[in-house]
């Protein structure tokens, strides 16, 4: 019993008792992968926190399209407000004449 107590005391810092035969886990091992000279030459794209130039361009184009659509919607939604109609809508080159509202003299 004294021998068994000494072994347990000696390995008390381990999470698993030595009598189970299980060794404690070690850290991850890094193996270098075999790279064939005949395989494709892979390159990692330059990125900023995982966002590449291609994905940033695609996101910018998408957000620009949504922004333009939202802007056109907002302009036409607020086109009945007299200040917006006079300052913005009348100055649009092709369709500006459509937004000129003349009040008949009988309504004055």
From TrEMBL:
Listed Pfam families: QCR10 (PF09796)
Domain of life: Eukaryota
GO aspect biological process, one term: mitochondrial electron transport, ubiquinol to cytochrome c
Annotated region (Disordered), positions in chain: 1-30
Keywords of the record: Membrane, Transmembrane, Transmembrane helix
InterPro entries cross-referenced by the UniProt entry: Cytochrome_b-c1_su10_fun (IPR019182)
Membrane-traversing stretches: 59-79
UniProt feature coiled coil, ranges: none
A GO CC term attached to the entry: mitochondrion
Protein name per UniProt: QCR10 domain-containing protein
């Amino acid at each position: 019993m004294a021998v068994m107590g000494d072994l347990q005391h000696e390995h008390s810092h381990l999470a698993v008792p030595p009598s189970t035969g299980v060794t404690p886990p070690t850290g991850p091992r890094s193996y270098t992968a075999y790279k064939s000279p005949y395989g494709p030459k892979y390159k990692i794209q330059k990125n900023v926190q995982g966002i590449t130039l291609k994905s940033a361009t695609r996101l910018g184009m998408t957000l620009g399209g949504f922004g333009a659509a939202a802007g056109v919607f907002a302009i036409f939604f607020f086109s009945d407000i007299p200040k917006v109609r006079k300052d913005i809508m009348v100055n649009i080159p092709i369709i500006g004449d459509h937004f000129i509202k003349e009040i008949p003299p009988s309504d004055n």
